[in-house]
Write the structure tokens for this entry.
Amino acid sequence: MTPSDLDMPATSKIAVPLGGGTDGEMVQFEIGEEYDACRLRASYRDQVVDLMAPDFFSALCRVREIMALAGLHPICYGASLDVYCVDATRESGNGLNAHQLTMGQKPGDADLVEILADGPDVCSSTVVDQRKYYLHWLESVQA
């Protein structure tokens, strides 16, 4: 029997810099979909975190909370203070894209970023601080 006979999901692998570690250290993410859920597997050092969630942004948040216990964090847009996956992007791309938010401005297509990509404007934060920023941003666009 082959994997295609079992209808096994295809996975993608993405390497992301690891914050809190040594220079050049990376976290390897594997993404895939199983049973109508999004599966994210993070491998770093001698650890593996493998979980499923309704979307990849939610899964990444859960992985970040676990990594934070060891003082580590991925350096990617999905972990950036000013990036959040609002409802429309969660539904359309399973949370693989999110918006980079600017206070007082509604996001547009130009503000979309891939959550596992990194860039010079990534501002790593905790899941809690990222959520607080998002809630503050919500207030700023409703005013």
